[in-house]
Amino acid sequence: MLSQSTACIDAIVIVELAGEGRRPVTQYIVKRLLFSVVVIFAISLIVFSAVRVIPGDVCAIVVGDRVTPEQCAAIEERLGLDQPAPRQYMSWVGGIARGDFGTSLDQNRAVWPEIRKRIPVTVQLTLLSTLFAVAVALPIGVYSAARQDRFADYFLRIITIGWLSIPNFWLGVMLILLLSTWFGYVSPLGYAHPWDDLSTNLQQHALAAFALGLALSASIARITRSAMLEVLRQDYIRTARAKGLRESLVINRHALRNALIPVITLFALQFGVLFGGTVIIETVFNIPGLGRLLLRSVLLKDYPMVQGLVLLFAVVLVTINLIVDISYAWLDPRIRYS
Known about the structure:
Layout: H1 2-20, H2 25-50, H3 58-62, H4 69-79, H5 85-97, H6 111-146, H7 151-164, H8 168-182, H9 198-232, H10 235-242, H11 247-276, H12 279-284, H13 290-300, H14 303-331
Helix pairs in contact: 1-14, 2-14, 6-7, 6-9, 6-11, 7-9, 8-9, 9-11, 10-11, 11-14, 13-14
């Protein structure tokens, strides 16, 4: 919901910028930064309130089921849970400003170091998934648009619709079962860091990246086709063809760049969604990333960890939206900030 609503607001802002063309880029960036701060503030309030209504006893999480009232009171005092909610929120925000995200209830460790060491794992999985999606989707979308209403176009559209309908967690489970049953292949167990054993690391991420990126490749392919069809009907494309330019040159140099604007938007937003939405895939493939940590924290009601993770995901999404907005002017010369 956050990415969809933000994208709608961003589209309105871009239309205003294209129409007026007089606002300096610095003013625009400052405005977007202020808007981003408001969004993150709203999300922090929501997650701070939501994690406190999740069923579960904090004292039981810290000590165990046989906790005495005296122990529970001491725990609540140490964690600041005996204070009013507004004071708890201000204390949490003040700690974040100092780089202190709190202490995990489950492991009794600082939240941020635990999150920080898992960020590269999720980032690698997300990058591999998106790179796979783009490598597959762009050729399919461009070729399908160039062969509009022909057999290849219909075939590729059917394939991409099928990819969209496959849940990534089901695909991941099927890949594990089929490869192990038919070919006797099982991904290496555990987790290998890429700087220690790159080959094993890629084997551990390959199936997960494929399962996670397949649906994204279908979405990118379909929007690439639609954008290419719209661009190919423009007058400057007909002029380029009338000049005798090769069809490959017309498509790659004149059409594809302008068609990339909605594609880049979808790609960037989906990258943020994948970054925060790897919960099931990381669990299926036993990858120790942020998604798996979030699932464990929610189940244990480790609210300091949940708050830190959700806030991180929000910052990533908002930052990606800002970068996409600024990149519009480079992608399309008709859009200017000043």
